[in-house]
Design goal:
alpha+beta, 5 helices, four-stranded antiparallel sheet, 2 domains, two-stranded antiparallel sheet, Beta-Lactamase, elongated
Amino acid sequence: MSTSVDGVGTVDALVAAARMLDGFDSIDDLAPTACQLATEIVPDVQQAELVRTLSGERSMTLAVAGDPDVVRADELDLLLAAALDDLVLHLYADHPFDDANQRIARLFAAQLAAAVQTVHTRAKAANLERALATSRDIGVAMGIIMARRACTRDEAFDLLRRASRVHQRKLAGIAADVADTGILEFELDGRDTGTGRLADASYTCRNR
């Protein structure tokens, strides 16, 4: 591999690294691959460590790759981005990094920052998709209850809330069941402190 930023070998390696850093769903999954690639792509790096800085002066190591016994004569600390989990890539060598290798290290860190941003973007998209699905299920469940109980929107939501509390399940899960089956069923007992009234101790919302 060329030790020059302009070297074809280095360019090819960075392109390959960009592909290998893509497709991860979490930073924890990405970290080991990132550290391993850093030791392989950045010349003279004998150990790489990806760290998340926490509050105060605390930090948490996410992954380490390379020689565990390296004499750390030189160190590059590359902040990926303050907005990206406060991640820092530490690169260690047993002799000083030259200017060319420092440039390669910064190029690799930029690729890693882009991969981290992709992980965040995917996570946000997945969270939004789940939120939309949950909202849709709750709306459908409330509509079913309102139609079959001839109750108001607030009363329908209260029934979902009470069922969630009684069964100790998330409201979203109760709503999804109602949306799938058209049935809301729960037992009233001492755990239920709701003010709504039901005629019987058990209630099943069914299409009669």
